[in-house]
Design a protein that fits this description.
- By secondary structure, the protein is of the alpha+beta class.
- The protein has one domain: Beta-grasp domain (Ubiquitin-like (UB roll), Roll).
- Helices cover about 20% and strands about 35% of the residues.
- About 20% of the residues are buried.
Length: about 90
Amino acid sequence: MDVDIGGTGTVRVCFFARYAELAGRGEGTLAVPLPATVRDVVARVRREWPGAAALPSEPLAALNQRQTPLDAAVRDGDEVALLPPFAGG
């Protein structure tokens, strides 16, 4: 697998349900220095977007529509979705 080394990448970030309310948007794009992880994207979102500071520091996340651990590497053009806890049965 190729890994982005150095430079900056653009990542699409999607928010759902309560997280969209907190962030004040359903989605947006974010420039991140590479290499980066999903955790880095979450930290940057919480720092840079008003209201997003209220998001948990370790939310459930998906990378390119697949659930992923926060230490997964992100690449330029990836999509990171932040998912609130699920409930139901």
